[in-house]
Amino acid sequence: LDTPSGEDVDENGCSTSQLDTDMDGVNDANDACPDTPAGENVDNVGCSSSQEDADNDEVMDAFDACPNTPLGAVVDAAGCAASQLDSDGDTITDDRDQCPTTTLGEPVNGVGCAATERDTDDDGVMDASDICDSTPFSENADAQGCSPSQKDSDGDGVNDDVDNCPGTENGLNVDMLGCATNQRDADSDGISDADDTCPVTPADEQVDANGCSDSQKDEDLDDIMNNKDLCPDTPVTQTVDLDGCSEQQKDDDEDGIKNHVDECPNTPEDELINAVGCALFQLDSDQDGVNDAEDAFKFDANESVDTDNDGVADRWDAYPEDPTRSQAEVEESGNGLLYGVIVLLIVGLLGGGGYFYTRKPEMTVGPFDEAMNSMDAATEQNMGDEKNLPSLEGTGPQQWEENGVHWSRDANGQLSYYDATSQQWVPFQG
What we know:
Blueprint: H1 334-352, H2 367-384, E1 398-402, E2 405-409, E3 415-419, E4 424-427
Antiparallel strand pairs: 1-2, 2-3, 3-4
């Protein structure tokens, strides 16, 4: 009945504008909430409170803990957005709470954080435990929130970041670098100034326990520092050169004989030498200016030449190039017998008076001694050969041999005999 003209009707002859499916008193055509539970009071659009969503957050007002949620805000099942929640009950809504799990009852700052949750200086240590709450951003902090620029570990008044001596004993006066006298190391050699005998050691030099490097030490007290001293053990009384070496320590010709006992300081390399550093060609035993190697009579300063190697010096040798003879041939005269008698008397005196040639004990010889003795052996061999003795008449120098003794008479009549031990002619004192 009374169905408006033109409206569709159901099987009961009723159009939508005439139906009230939920029987809430609002026809379906005008009912915003067509499924209102029976018995609930509805508003003029047919909705009860359980069906209304005043803030359009899709949570019905009957269940909406936050009925005034801002439009478009994401809400939870209770119809509340973060801006409406305070999960930890610290009075700071979750949308502003940087510490959403603050322990109930702890005072918080404007962002909802208690001291146990804050790290004001962002050093990784919460403010509640941070002794140094303003740590510079670029510095690392310890477990107490302090960086070296904020700490003074040894309590000397100098912060650790500029303290060169961080372990100063309590009570000691320190300098601007935090070091007491017993901690300073002015030359940075690892030895404190209090124990450093050499406080200005050059950089990069190794030092001993006293803080001294070789360039600062002179252990043998020769005024040449160890680093330049080639002879570091020079005895105190000896004079040294610029290398710190005395003559007793040097061997300039490197022959194994030290300079102070080397009688031949310029011996060539690889030469055989004797105990005083001389090679054969350097010796002049009789100091006559002729080296032993060229001296036929190396122990006779008066003689040096024996061309025919017969043991008779050339100046006494009537035949200096004939090793078989050396005495001038003279005519017989009455004086010959007289000279013969004199010779026999002299020989007798020498023989009866105890003239002996004592042989030196045998010694072990080396290559050098063998070379030195080679000339003596040749000389003794020649001298050992018996020669025919002419008569003594004549006015020139003469030599002869009698019973193993070599005799000579010079132009002035001086009679001499040859001493095999000294290898010299000895004037006869008759």
